[in-house]
Design brief:
With about 500 residues, this protein is α/β, with parallel strands linked by helices. The chain has 16 helices and 21 strands. This is Aldehyde dehydrogenase (NAD+)/betaine-aldehyde dehydrogenase.
């Protein structure tokens, strides 16, 4: 196992800082402090204790990273690397992720708060799987010949890298979502500048180290830590050809406006308000178990979290009672504790936002069935919030319309299944939807009628490296994962060859 240049040994203890010295920026293959020398603190959301200091990049660091990425884009070591050799580099990254899986999981849990079982069982394996999946694609990025109508002319297409890509990642699944972007970008021979969320940068730093260890040439992968201004500088920079961003719809709109300067290519995976439809014939116990887990996984901090529940009126009371009991039984605690079902929210600021939505729900007349408050006692120092269930929610209430991104379950009743798709679609979002039914016709009819990028029938919102991921409407632009990501990270060039002698 490689030794990190800045992390303390994991054995230093669950209450210890994890950064031995300030986390550095990676520019052109070299780790170093930011030009300004400024740092900022990252915190453990389970205890609010500092985990260490990170370098704060500024505009000059952005310029340097872009210059390094542009130089590497032309460097024969990368630009002329064979597809098979590139595949081997990606496969080595996957192997290193697995070899360092315990460390990566520990970092993810300390920095983000997710239960260690989630980090070990979902985040780390998912990260490795994405690199292996795209390692297989490097030798299959093909052009085509076209039967054009010009006489004696051969026409063929080439897929070429789009260029320098800014990968801006969120704080809810820092490691795995970064790999959704990084693996296809490298498979298509781009160079990248990673900008992780300032709240959760640790696994991005470690992954960048592993990329260098795997043999990624200098300058191909660069990393800048810092706040929103770093992301804004990357988006506005004329030397950046593409931006891939996962985060809020508000920031996505700002990125669209800022990218217009040099007409950057953009991929945006934005907010969601997943409608979950529980039909009259659904296996209710199975639906309750799936809906509660789908709503509260990672404490509800999931872009596709099940977040508004439409339940047949004849079964809504039973559903609400069982969902409230299941939610109340979940055990809150630090992610490192074996008994923890739900970890903390990521920051104090976000906890206050979630609590504000709960207070608004009560003010607007929703019935608070369980939860609705910050955890106290041994957990009061961290950012823990009790899982919350509301009954009697109507479509016009704020908690049914806006993305809460927390452990809140609003339950709405419906009378006519024929009208439910219209209610589900009455939202600015369209990332995902969920359907619970035993009837095959109902499942396929609703899956076609709901406007969402992904529809999950009788299951959790589990993405896969081979399947497209992205949203309709204000939930984003473009698709990640599967062969669809190759479209996002390549440009198509047409070549015309006159065959006349």
């Amino acid at each position: 196992m490689a030794v990190s240049t800045f992390l303390r040994p994991q054995e230093s203890g669950p209450d210890s800082p994890v950064l031995e010295k300030p986390g550095r920026l990676l520019i052109g293959g070299e780790w170093g402090p930011g030009t300004s020398g400024r740092t900022f603190t990252t915190y453990d959301p389970a205890t609010a204790a500092p985990l260490g200091e990170l370098a704060e990049a500024d505009a000059s660091d952005v310029d340097a990273a872009v210059d390094a990425a542009r130089k590497a884009l032309r460097d024969p070591e990368w630009a002329q690397m064979s597809p098979a050799a590139r595949a081997r580099v990606l496969w080595r990254i996957a192997d290193l992720i697995e070899a360092n899986g315990d460390e990566l999981a520990y970092l993810e849990t300390r920095d983000q708060g997710q239960p260690l079982g989630v980090a070990r069982g979902v985040s780390v394996p998912g990260a490795a799987e994405h690199f292996r999946y795209y390692a297989g694609w490097t030798t299959k990025i093909e052009g085509a010949t076209s039967p054009i109508s010009l006489p004696n002319t051969l026409h063929y297409t080439r897929r070429e890298p789009v260029g320098v890509c800014a990968l801006i990642t969120p704080w809810n699944f820092p490691l795995m979502i970064l790999t959704w972007k990084l693996a296809p970008a490298l498979a298509c021979a781009n160079t990248v500048i990673i900008k992780p969320a300032e709240q959760t940068s640790l696994t991005a730093l470690r992954l960048a180290e592993l990329c260098l260890e795997a043999g990624v040439p200098e300058g191909v992968v660069n990393l800048l830590t810092g706040g929103p201004e770093v992301g804004r500088a990357l988006v506005a920079h004329a030397g950046v050809d593409k931006v891939s961003f996962t985060g809020s719809t508000e920031v996505g709109r700002e990125i669209m406006r800022s990218s217009a300067g040099n007409l950057k290519r953009v991929t945006l995976e934005l907010g969601g308000k997943t409608p979950t439809i529980v039909a009259h014939d659904a296996d209710l116990d199975r639906a309750v178990a799936g809906c509660v887990q789908g709503a509260l996984f990672n404490s509800g901090q999931v872009c596709a979290a099940y977040s508004r529940f439409y339940v047949d009126r004849s079964r809504v009371d039973e559903f609400t009672e069982k969902a409230a009991a299941a939610a109340a039984a979940l055990r809150l605690g630090p992610g490192l504790a074996d008994t923890t079902d739900l970890g903390p929210l990521v920051t104090e600021e976000h906890l206050r936002s979630v609590d504000g939505y709960v207070r608004t729900g009560v003010e607007q007349g929703a019935e608070l069935v369980t939860g609705g408050r910050r955890a106290d006692g041994d957990l009061e120092k961290g950012f823990f919030y009790r899982p919350t269930v509301f009954a009697g929610v109507t479509d016009d209430m704020t908690i049914a319309r806006e993305e809460i991104f927390g452990p809140v379950i609003p339950v709405l009743a419906y009378d006519d299944l024929d009208d439910i798709a219209d209610r589900a679609n009455d939202s600015e979002f369209g990332l995902a939807a969920s359907i619970w039914t035993k009837d095959l016709s109902t499942a396929h009819t609703l899956a076609a009628a709901v406007r969402a990028g992904s529809v999950f029938v009788n299951m959790l919102h589990v993405p896969d490296a081979a399947a497209p991921w992205g949203g309709f409407k204000a939930s984003g632009v473009g698709r990640e994962m599967g062969p669809y990501a190759l479209e996002a990270y390549t440009e198509v060039k047409g070549v015309f060859v006159n065959l006349d002698r």
